[in-house]
Hints:
The structure is a homodimer of 146-residue chains.
Chain A: H1 5-19, H2 28-35, H3 39-51, E1 55-58, E2 64-67, H4 76-84, H5 107-123, H6 128-144
Antiparallel strand pairs in A: 1-2
Helix pairs in contact in A: 1-3, 1-4, 1-6, 2-3
The structure holds a DNA duplex (30 and 30 nucleotides).
Amino acid sequence: MKISTKGRYAVRVMLDLALNNTGECIKVKDIAARQDISEKYLEQIIAALSRAGFVNSVRGAQGGYRLSKAPENYTVGMILRVTEGSLAPVACLDEGAEACERCDTCETLEVWRELARAIDNVVDNVTIADLVNRRKKRLEALDYSI
Amino acid sequence: MKISTKGRYAVRVMLDLALNNTGECIKVKDIAARQDISEKYLEQIIAALSRAGFVNSVRGAQGGYRLSKAPENYTVGMILRVTEGSLAPVACLDEGAEACERCDTCETLEVWRELARAIDNVVDNVTIADLVNRRKKRLEALDYSI
DNA sequence: TGTAATTCCTACTATCTTAGTAGGTTTGTT
DNA sequence: AACAAACCTACTAAGATAGTAGGAATTACA
């Protein structure tokens, strides 16, 4: 029941892009340095985000990436699903899963359904914009305390 | 983010023990047959439940297993934690995890905390007794429809 | 026009986890 | 004594995870 590094890193990448958005392109190299993640591995992760249309890429020198929409348009759930695949806690609940023959007598399935709902409810209700705001508030609080 | 077979099977085993409780010992062989799980694999799973004190074992011929307490004393969460280990979605939140150095600026950690709470809230609020009752209701509904 | 910087693409790999299998030992009943 | 059960430990095949590696394509800029 762990979220993989891929998923966790992807969320951090999206947050990094939102926090460092100046209108300019942001290079993988810079994200990798800030987030302390291998450049090469990040390349793969951001490629998935790009394929999903979450970021726009600009090739060549001075190229890089930018969020394709404003941060409030991306939920943590969207990002995790793109990088991790389904967030359902059992295969029976994956999209396109064929019903197993125990389904109708399977008392546990209902529990997994509740669990899936609870998980979705959290990750689909936090956006990258929320994380940006929390970060800002945290920094403000820090300022006052000095 | 999947629950392993071990955890899922463990819940089914506990439910099976609750449903088939006649006061007599229940043999692994019978559970395996009813649940359609390999006997040898089940042995390992039930051994974990036994070590945790969830079931009592009786060795020798006519031996087997029994729930050590009434079904309402076992939550799905307890069972999953015994067989799966921590249900926390990231290692940072595992019991006894040392704080990583990014913790204080890690906006995502708070999301994982919410997620952990949501997961716990589901699995810690469903007991084996609940599953037994749901099964009974389902069977009754079936009876009436005939 | 050349060169450096960047994304893009594909393959490879080492390690860990999962989901079992296998074989034997101990304990208790009949 | 024979049998049936739990108990114990080691092994293993397949897959997932978390990267590494190397180069090709594209573009800005000198």
